[in-house]
Amino acid sequence: MFKKILSILGFAGKTVKDGTGKSMDFMDDLLESEHITNTIDKAKDLSGSVVEKAGEAFEKTKMAAEDLMENEKIKSMTDKAKDIGNQIADKAEDLAEKVSENDAVKGVIDKAKVMGSGIASKAEDLKDKAEGMIDDKVFGEEE
Q: Which H or E run includes 6?
């Protein structure tokens, strides 16, 4: 019985091997056929054509942008925009100067400076105390 099973398996294996060989031959023939090679050649031509068209479109767009930048109306509008921007910056600077000259604003600024230096001093004291406590704990130096 065991021999029968092995012979059936051997026969099945041989059949699979023969079928696979025939499939491979068929695939080789198919790949070498004129239909496949023509399709591959057409795909190459088409992709080359697409790349060429994309290059042409890019070049046209680039030229149009360059022409637009040289257009007198566009240049004029750009110059006006720059002038308006400079005027706004000048007015903002003048306004900032006037605000800083105001006595009430100066008083607030001075108070903020005093408070800020006080806070900085307190923070420095706290930092020193914390460092001292850490040194005492780590190095065993107790006061």
A: helix 2-32
- Two tokens, residue 65: 């942008």
Return the amino acid letter for 99: V
Tens digit of each residue's pLDDT (9 = 90 or more) over 30-39: 666 666 677 7
Per-residue pLDDT of 38-74, as tens digits, reads 777 787 888 888 888 888 888 888 888 888 778 788 7
Report the alpha-carbon distance of residue 60 to residue 67 in Å, rounded.
11
Give CA–CA dist 127/89, Å, rounded.
42
The DSSP secondary-structure symbol of 91 reads H
Residue type, 7: S
Phi, psi for residue 141 in degrees, rounded to 5:
-90, 105
Six token digits for residue 50? 């697409």
Domain boundaries, the chain: 72-101, 102-143
